[in-house]
Design goal:
This protein is 42% helix and 17% strand. By secondary structure, the chain is of the alpha/beta class.
Amino acid sequence: MKIVHIINNLHIGGAESLISTLLPKIKDMGIDCQLICLNGINESKYINELETFHIPIHILNKKSSPYHPILMLKIGRLLQKINPDIVHVHLFPAFYWAALAKKIFSLKSKFLFTEHATFNRRQSIFWWKPLELFVYRQYQQIFCISGGVENRMKKYIQGKFITKIENGIPLEKYRQNKPVCLNASLAKQVESLHSIKENKLILSVGRLVPDKNQQTMIRMMTVLSSDYLLLIVGEGQCRTELEKLIQSLKLENRIFLLGAQTDIPYLIKQAHAGIFTSKVEGFGLAALEMMASGLPVAFSSVPGLNELCPDESLMASQDDYNQFAIIIKRLMQDESYYQQMKEKCLSRSDTYSIQEMANKHIKLYQQVLSDSPNPEMC
């Protein structure tokens, strides 16, 4: 069996992280797998990880936009050359270019798509729907990473095969007692925050974009006492806006925008609690990584995250910064509650192994190739 995955690029993100852990597992199971990126740079952390497993990576345009129509032609020609059994696509616009390449080049491979989001702005535009449905019809199967994503897709698409394969992570990676930090300046900064014993470090990981709604956690800090510190890992278009909000609330000494980081297991081990205040979340891979490390997490009650949450007392409405403050304070002040939530997070994370996710993918690949219908699909 020969599988080609296609994604926009391997910059920092949930779907990109998933590719970097899923493909090596699939290869270990004897499957020939390759990766096509629409654009990107060779120095990407995820690209370096995949190359250590000798997984071929084809970067179509190193610097140009993933929206350039010529990518459709490049995808088609490359797939003709590779001639895979299955083409598995992730994210927009790769989703469009691969589907159009299939049609134009009359490709015989089976095309699959993983939907990573519970909300899709294109699907809210009524006149766009015919094009969306045309593209979806080019795929034999739609995989959804959570129940929230699955529910949305079943409402939007009629008569398509849709199934849920929840994300997984390498649990052992996040259960190390003392993960190494390769960034010396980051380690020094975190150690300085720990130098005051009373400090309580709250960690959030995610792109700085409107859907992640870091504004709520920033406002939460105005309710908490000065010994609570917030570390926000990630980059994105909202950074300047968040910096201005932090300054306006005079929280520069308590909130730290750390940018994109690769030493996530280290940061998780240094934190006392995690927080996610997203408005939209397909799954919550970063939250799962924290849970697998035994870090209690406060969640917004949105589809995707609410499926991960092991206890309702850890959830708040996405904009209710006062309730988030109450959750964090209880975790920090009630040792018995903290330990109880820690155990619940660990137990919940046990069901999200990357190996189990890889097993499900292989099983469904085999079913698609044999044209054997899955009774769980709609």
